[in-house]
């Protein structure tokens, strides 16, 4: 090979490599994927195929979540009933701050670690994903009372929103993209930095003797439903809070049966997580218990028998209830406090951007 041909060969090779590097750099520069950091003690997760997390989508969803324009009277945002300081719950037994000012019929659930929720949302699992779920509170007159066409019109009048929607979605501002953005933001609400988590990950935190005893009692007597690192099986159970279940108000008191029409699901409601549970009183699907003490008393000696009450609530002798001594109750409460995630409720990256 002549010297000229050698020089030509290296020039072609250089240009080819240079071109590849520029292409790689362009891919990296335009990569809009949102990289969600999940602590090592939490379960693996799979991004939503139809609505994957993107930086633009999450940013837009956060703005929408805290924007009162999403309500029909422009006085309520999603955050009005899902407050970060309360682990995105509302602290009320039954909320009545909606557009109609009528009391709701179910207690407001928390909004965190939802990217692992795979068996349905709402207390009865009536919604299959976060996107479809959002349409419920958005359009309900007892909640945000918004007309979706009016919402699109309002958002299109805001230049910043027009730009953000165009960046996040190919077809810009639509009600479908509103709920997609909201869902993306909510999937980033991961709570996994409590004292318990840091103890589990060997990050220099030790639990007290009482907290350790509480963890042991929980594993023995509560883990069948409040399972794994999520502290919920994401399933539905009849935990014996009522003797019978009427079909008033389109059957919302029937529990999971309202969705499946399976008689075995009568009176079954979604297992809430125990993470941040000391921040999210009151408890149960109707908020009837105002304190953890009332909840523990219910499981110890207040369970009401019915044909569908969960079999796990029966003792070996056939008696209903989970025996708990006063010492065990104190230990459980100590451990539940160790599940409170102070970093999560003060995280500025998910707080009100306004």
From TrEMBL:
- PROSITE patterns (UniProt xref): PROKAR_LIPOPROTEIN
In terms of domain of life, where is this protein from?
A: Bacteria
Where does it mainly reside?
other
Per the record, GO CC terms?
cell envelope
Q: Where in the cell is it found?
A: Cell envelope
Q: Which of UniProt's keywords are assigned here?
A: Heme, Iron, Metal-binding, Oxidoreductase, Peroxidase, Signal
User: Which Pfam families does the entry link to?
Assistant: CCP_MauG
The residues that hold heme c 2 are 222, 225-226
Residue ranges occupied by any Di-haem cytochrome c peroxidase domain in the UniProt entry: 57-203
Single annotated GO MF: metal ion binding
The protein here is known as Cytochrome-c peroxidase
Gene source species: Pedobacter chitinilyticus
């Amino acid at each position: 090979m002549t010297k000229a041909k050698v020089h030509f060969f290296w020039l072609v090779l250089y240009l080819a490599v240079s071109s590849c590097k520029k292409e790689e750099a362009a891919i990296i520069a335009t990569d809009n994927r949102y990289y969600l950091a999940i602590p090592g003690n939490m379960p693996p997760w799979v991004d939503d195929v139809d609505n994957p997390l993107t930086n633009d989508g999450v940013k837009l969803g956060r703005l929408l979540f805290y924007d009162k324009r999403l309500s029909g009277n422009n006085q309520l945002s999603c955050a009005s009933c899902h407050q970060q300081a309360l682990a995105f719950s509302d602290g009320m037994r039954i909320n009545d701050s909606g557009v109609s000012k009528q009391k709701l019929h179910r207690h407001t659930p928390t909004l965190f670690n939802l990217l692992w929720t795979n068996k349905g949302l709402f207390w009865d699992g009536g919604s299959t994903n976060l996107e479809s779920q959002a349409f419920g509170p958005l359009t309900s007159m007892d909640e945000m009372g918004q007309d979706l066409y009016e919402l699109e019109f309002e958002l299109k009048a805001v230049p910043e929103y027009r730009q953000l929607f165009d960046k996040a979605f190919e077809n810009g501002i639509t009600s479908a993209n509103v709920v997609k953005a909201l869902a993306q933001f909510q999937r980033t609400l991961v709570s996994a930095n409590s004292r318990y988590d840091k103890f589990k990950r060997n990050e220099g935190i030790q639990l007290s003797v009482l907290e350790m005893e509480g963890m042991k009692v929980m594993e023995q007597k509560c883990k069948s439903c409040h399972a794994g690192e999520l502290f919920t099986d994401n399933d539905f159970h009849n935990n014996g809070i009522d003797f019978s279940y009427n079909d008033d108000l389109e059957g919302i008191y029937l529990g999971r049966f309202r969705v499946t029409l399976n008689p075995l699901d009568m009176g079954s409601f979604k297992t809430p997580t125990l993470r941040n549970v000391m921040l999210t009183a009151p408890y149960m699907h109707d908020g009837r218990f105002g304190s953890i003490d009332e909840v523990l008393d219910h499981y110890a000696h207040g369970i009401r028998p019915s044909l569908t009450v969960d079999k796990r609530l029966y003792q070996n002798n056939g008696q209903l209830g989970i025996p708990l001594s006063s010492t065990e109750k104190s230990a459980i409460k100590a451990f539940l406090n160790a599940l409170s995630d102070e970093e999560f409720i003060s995280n500025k990256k998910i707080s009100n951007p306004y």
